Amino acid sequence: MKMFNKVVIIGTGLIGGSLGLTLKKRHLAGQIIGLSRKKKNANLAKKAGAIDLVGTSLDVVKDADLVILATPVDVIVNLAVKISNKLKKGCIVIDVGSSKENIVAKLSKLIPNFIGCHPLAGSEKKGAINLKADIFKGSVCILTPTVKTNKNALNKIELLWRNLGAKIVKLSPNKHDQILASTSHLPHAVAFSLMGSVPEQFLSMSSGGLNDTTRIAASDAKLWSQIFLSNRKNLLSAVSCFQKELNALKLALQNKNQRSLTKILTLANKKREKLA
Amino acid sequence: MKMFNKVVIIGTGLIGGSLGLTLKKRHLAGQIIGLSRKKKNANLAKKAGAIDLVGTSLDVVKDADLVILATPVDVIVNLAVKISNKLKKGCIVIDVGSSKENIVAKLSKLIPNFIGCHPLAGSEKKGAINLKADIFKGSVCILTPTVKTNKNALNKIELLWRNLGAKIVKLSPNKHDQILASTSHLPHAVAFSLMGSVPEQFLSMSSGGLNDTTRIAASDAKLWSQIFLSNRKNLLSAVSCFQKELNALKLALQNKNQRSLTKILTLANKKREKLA
Q: Which residues of B touch A269 (CB under 8 A)?
């Protein structure tokens, strides 16, 4: 069922490209035009069948029914400024950024039919070379409407994500950023720091534990430094919470307090069961 | 090729049971007798074909050619005291504990043909229910001989692990504990603390990142509190190194220093490439 005639995807990396591929596969879009700062990425996306055409200027948004902003978080606002006066009436714009408060505050003012989205389907892999269809199947997509959000546009985007296989959760932009600081940005900060702290000459003497714990330390450095900065205050709070936990474990270890140590580990065990 | 006529495995959990299963599969042992504090585990191991018989007392070690101590680290020394005067001449004893300094110091004095071993093939899963053959294939097994170690016994155990598919690394017990504090015990401490710090009500809003980073926080709490305490000083040093790394990241974030933040993340990226 075609939901949109013309879709423009700006940023044809892992999420943007995979979105294009899934829209195609599920026949949800007529024509898909992709744009990328890196021409190579857009060409790869076209080759993979994720987009029909490589756009050459932002003017392609003029007659779009849906514009998807799938660039790194730090350029989304500037991009929105540039396209906002080109859009036709009724065009819906979504972003897929990892932090929402700043983006939603600014884009809501610029674009009447803007809906903030965050599909929890990223990976440490990036770029059009890694895109694949159906990465959204069974995943959670968080929508961050505000009191000003156009209800029709919201319903349509909710249906779009459902059609892509995602489960919808609606949160305020503020709440989204607070939660994701704990569940995504903190684990990344911890994984990067853990990787940084293990001496290189020891790496061959490791097993699955270190490997899994640091998988996301392979995530793109520039992209993630921008995400960290875009959710700075919440991430700093989450890091402080984590530091308290680690200090409690350290204290039990310093005091040779096996009972306290086992209690800390047991609580973590119980919470982990709820994650799976 | 049969290497040992009679093998006794004390502790038929994930590692002990999987060892039995692999010894059987590769025809390396004549008879295998298994003992466990939990009768259920030994019976499960027998049912899985990992052992031929369930032993009822430590006296079964009397005519063993190889005794494998595969219990939690905190009981290995006591167990060695109990069996040391029962062993026949020439019997080789190995342990598979996650820390080596204390165990090797004590067992070297008690048992003439003792070789400390640490196969890096554990998992967050435990117990005979999860055992499987060939978990050692392609993995690293660290041997920790000392100047007093019997060379013939060492050569035989080295060959045994090679026959099980493992790659051998030899380290002093002290160096082993220093390295494993960084590559295994620290990632566990970090994963437990990370799991502890994420509010339970946020867990449904997470993706693969948190999941992988905290997989080993599902590891047995009692077992790991004992491992942590058995390598306390090295682990405390490793935790301090990690805390310094995290503080550097936090400082860059507090100062909105994107350049410094990207640099920290890039260094972690580069090290992570060497892990895979």
A: 217-221
List pLDDT tens digits, range B242-266.
Answer: 999 999 999 999 999 999 999 999 9
Q: What is the rounded distance in angstroms from the CA atom of residue B268 to the CA atom of residue B216?
A: 20
Whole-angstrom Cα distance, residue A126 to residue A134?
A: 16
pLDDT, one tens digit per residue, over B8-67 is: 999 999 999 999 999 999 999 999 999 999 888 899 999 999 999 999 999 999 999 999
Contact of A170 with chain B, judged by CB distance below 8 Å, is answered with no
pLDDT in tens, A54-91: 999 999 999 999 999 999 999 999 999 999 999 999 99
Residues 193-232 of B with CB under 8 A from A: 193-200, 202-222, 224-226, 228-229, 232
Tell me, what amino acid is at B177?
D
Residue B75 touches chain A, beta carbons under 8 Å: no
Query: Which secondary structure element, helix H or strand E, spans residue B142, and what is its range?
Result: strand B140-143
Q: At what angle do helices B173-180 and B232-254 cross, to 10 degrees?
A: 30
In sequence order, which residues have a C-beta less than 8 Å from that of residue B118 and are 6 or more positions away?
B96, B97, B98, B100, B141, B142, B144, B176, B180
**Domain shared by A149 and A19, yes or no:** yes
- Contact residues on chain A for B264, CB-CB shorter than 8 A: 192, 196
Residue that finishes a domain, picked among A115, A144, A171: A171
Q: How far is A260 from chain B (nearest CA, A)?
A: 9
Q: Is the pLDDT confidence value at A182 over 70? A: yes
| Domain assignment of residue A136, given as a range | 4-171
For chain B, give the mean pLDDT.
95
Q: Residue A205 and residue B274: Cβ atoms within 8 Å?
A: no
Residues B107-162: pLDDT tens digits?
Answer: 999 999 999 999 998 777 776 677 777 889 999 999 999 999 999 999 999 999 99
| CATH for A45 | 3.40.50.720
Residue A123: band (very low, low, confident or very high) from pLDDT cuts 50, 70, 90: confident
Domain's final residue, options A137, A171, A205: A171
Rg (CA), chain A: 21
Q: How, if at all, do strands A140-143 and A114-119 pair?
A: antiparallel
Helix (H, G, I), strand (E, B) or coil at A119: strand
Starting at the edge strand found earlier in the chain, the sheet holding A114-119 runs A53-54, A29-35, A4-10, A66-69, A92-95, A114-119, A140-143, A167-170
Q: Residue B222, exposed/middle/buried by CB under 10 A (0-12, 13-18, 19+)?
A: middle
Query: Does residue A139 sit in helix, strand or coil?
Result: coil
Assess B183–A contact: CB distance below 8 Å, yes or no.
Answer: yes
pLDDT of residue B126: 72
In our burial notation (b when 16+ CB lie closer than 10 A, e otherwise), range B87-112 reads beeebbbbbbbbbbbbbbebbbebbb
Pair of tokens at residue B184? 């295994």
CA distances B257 to A219, A243, B261, Å, are 19, 21, 6
Q: Are residues A166 and A209 in the same domain?
A: no
